[in-house]
Every structure is written in structure tokens, then in C-alpha cells.
Amino acid sequence: MGMTGITIQEASRTSGLSAHTLRYYERIGLVPEVGRDAAGHRSYTGADLAWLEFLTKLRRTGMPIADMCRYAELLRRGPETAAERRRILQEHRERVLERIAQLNGDLAVLDRKIDMYHEMESS
User: Fold this and answer.
1) What's the CATH number where 66 sits?
2) Sequence-separated (6 or more) residues with CB below 8 Å from residue 30
3) pTM (two decimals)
4) Is residue 1 part of a domain?
């Protein structure tokens, strides 16, 4: 079997995830078993990188690893799990929207304080 993708180091640079995280994600089943090259080294494909990009977005938006694993498990089971996968993403989306609203409120407080200091400095 020849090289069909990129090394774990290149996948790490591309994805922004450490090699340790990539191996961890594979070990817990979050990433399907990555193909191997002729020497037995991991060989990440474009599809693997696209999946890692999606996982990174889920993590960055605060989805717990357990929910990500559940989603990945459902995905592997096939199209009959589409409704449950959609539900997982919709529930996560609601939590993200709540967090954005919270952050917007916090940002407004910061903006008011900054404006107050600008006014003090102008006086």
C-alpha cells in the first residue's frame, strides 16, 4: 500500500492539533482509524483533514468530547442516524447561541468601561 496522504506531523501543522491530540482522537474513536503507508506510518487523507477541521470547530465552540464521540459513532452507523446527529448539532447550536449572547453582553460592559475611561481622559 503506497502513501495516500500526509504524515501525522503534516496533519498536525495543517489541523492545528498536536500529534498527541491526533493519536488521542484516534484512540478514543473520535477519528476513524487512519490509514497507514507502506512503512506503517499514519497517512492522513483529505477526508481525514476535513473531519479534523469539523472536530476542531466543534471543540472551539465548546462541544464536550463525549458528545463529539457520540456524534462520530452515529456517523459511522450510517444514514439511519441522521435525525439523531441533527439533534445533537441543533442542541449544540443552541448552546453556542446562548454563549454568543452572553459574550455580547460581556463585551457591552467592556465597551462602556472603555468609553468611560476615554471620557475621563478627555476631560
Assistant:
1) 1.10.1660.10
2) 55, 65, 68, 69, 72
3) 0.84
4) no
For residue 2, being part of any structural domain is answered with no
**C-alpha distances in Å from residue 47, one per residue of 44, 55, 73, 75, 80:** 8, 12, 17, 14, 21
Phi, psi of 5 (to 5 degrees): -155, -150
CB 44 within 8 A of CB 19: no
Q: Give 10-34 pLDDT, tens digit per residue.
A: 999 999 999 999 999 999 999 988 9
What is the count of structural domains for the chain?
A: 1
Helices (H) and strands (E) in the chain, counts: 5, 0
Could you tell me the residue range of the domain that residue 36 belongs to? Answer: 8-121
Residue pair 88/70 in contact (Cβ under 8 Å)? The answer is yes
C-alpha cell, 9: 506531523
